[in-house]
TrEMBL record:
This is GNAT superfamily N-acetyltransferase. One of its GO terms (molecular function) is acyltransferase activity, transferring groups other than amino-acyl groups. Keywords: Acyltransferase, Transferase. Residues 8-173 form the N-acetyltransferase domain.
Length: 178
């Protein structure tokens, strides 16, 4: 059942908000998506320890260097996403929206749009100049979402991604926040 917009809470997580339940829920959400073939960069579900390390790195980053946003509906994790600044000093004005994932049962109900909009808003507030994102060329949902938010294509790496015995192009998009 799609969550009514008002019942969905989206909040930014710092270190204090990252508890064991959220790590369990995130591991399950990612695992279910990847098992069904979602284009998230993993071929098999990441182990809990990997998800814990990833989320903890983002949640403990200095303010303005990264943001982890989670969408919840009645205690359930509907989706989450994060952006992170590039590490090299010469490109640290910019950041990458590295992960955006909405659980299967919540897809198509506006959760991804809410998360994406708020990720962009937090990046803008943090002074990020260019926010990049990339996705697999068959991911029409992601493409249509990012284009509707204002991301524009700046490159394509042909046959870059190998999954399920097939090759896919990597689509590279950017949103200029200046
Ligand atoms: C891509 C993803 C984040 C979108 O989140 P979502 O909650 O399903 O999307 P929303 O309901 O917020 O819809 C946002 C937009 O996506 C597009 N969209 C949604 N469902 C779609 C569909 N079935 N076909 C094509 N476009 C679709 C539309 O542009 C939609 O905008 P609209 O509501 O104004 O029409 C989500 O489907 C997901 O997690 N997929 C698996 C993981 C993934 O691919 N992540 C992105 C990797 S970069």
């Amino acid at each position: 059942m799609p969550p009514p917009d008002t019942a969905l809470s989206v909040r930014s997580l710092s270190d204090g908000g990252l508890d064991e339940t959220l790590i369990d829920q995130s591991t399950r959400l990612l695992g279910d998506l990847i098992t069904r073939g979602a284009a998230l960069g993993w071929l098999t579900p990441p182990p809990r320890a990997e998800v814990a390390a990833l989320l903890s790195r983002i949640a403990t980053a200095d303010e303005g260097d990264a943001a982890l946003l989670v969408a919840r509906h009645e205690g359930h994790l509907a989706g989450f996403g994060y952006w992170e600044r590039y590490a090299r000093p010469t490109i640290a004005r910019h950041a990458d929206l590295t992960l955006l994932a909405v659980g299967d049962t919540w897809q198509g109900a506006g959760v991804g749009r809410r998360l994406c909009g708020e990720l962009v808003a937090t990046a803008r507030r943090a002074g990020v100049e260019k926010l990049t994102v990339d996705f697999r060329d068959d991911n029409v949902r992601a493409q249509s979402l990012y284009e509707s938010v204002g991301f524009r294509r700046y490159g394509v790496l042909g046959d870059f991604i190998v999954a399920g015995g097939r090759r896919f192009d990597k689509m590279m998009y950017v949103l200029d926040l200046r």
